[in-house]
Amino acid sequence: MSDKLQCRCTILEAACRTDRREDGPSWCPGKTRFEAIQRAADTYADPELLSIARNSALVESEGYMRWTRVEEIVQFARKMGFRKLGIATCIGLINETRTLTRILEAKGFEVVALCCKAGSVPKEVIGIKDEEKVNPGGHESMCNPIAQAEILNQEGCEFNIMVGLCVGHDSLFLRYSKPLTTVLVVKDRVLCHNPVAAIYNSNAYYRRLQRPD
How confident is the model over 50-96, as pLDDT tens digits? Predict the structure, then answer.
């Protein structure tokens, strides 16, 4: 088991939150990966990236412990000058997406929302056998995050919001989405879309997560 993980660093708060990089352990990225960190810093000279980073920091400070994630998305989009927002949603969260759409429209945005099953493409297209379906015995539409991304691209969305896309499907959406994308809801059917609950309870109800397979 590697010790070279920042989560195992005993002086993380002192070294990373301050200018005391030299206090970090010998393997500290601030020491061993300084060139990569410097290249990243140089990248912010790009006006677009600088604007994203700066407005993100402003949303963090202005809304710290006050704004919900929904409010942070609204404020960030406003600071960036975005007017047309896309929502890539799981069909199972369509009601939540309807509410989100009303909120965003009330704040003055144009919204394009698209569910994951758009086009009703059968799962057989990606090699899923009938017995591998969630409900075998009939048509089952595949989640189609690439189509979601391509259509929102065509619609000219300036900023996309993911609402509950499955693990892996969200990765495909991020790969094919041209505009910036943020996440509002992370899919977790067992924990009511609150996956961090498994971590909070990993020493109790979800102790099994820490056992070797």
Answer: 999 999 999 999 999 999 999 999 999 999 999 999 999 999 999 99
The number of helix segments (H) and strand segments (E) in the chain equals 9, 4
> Is 128 contained in some domain?
yes
Is residue 115 assigned to a domain? yes
Q: Classify residue 210: in a domain, yes or no.
A: yes
The C-alpha torsion from 35 through 38 and 43 to 49, rounded to 10°, is: 130
Residue with tokens 């005993």: 10
Residue 1 carries which DSSP code?
-
13 phi and psi angles, rounded to 5 deg:
-60, -45
Q: What is the CATH number of the domain that holds 111?
A: 3.40.50
Domain that holds residue 113: 82-213
Domain count of the fold of the chain: 1
What is the per-residue pLDDT across 123-178, written as a single tens digit (0 to 9) for each? 999 999 999 999 999 999 999 999 999 999 999 999 999 999 999 999 999 999 99
Domain annotation covers residue 33: no
Cα 47 to Cα 86: distance, rounded to the nearest angstrom: 23
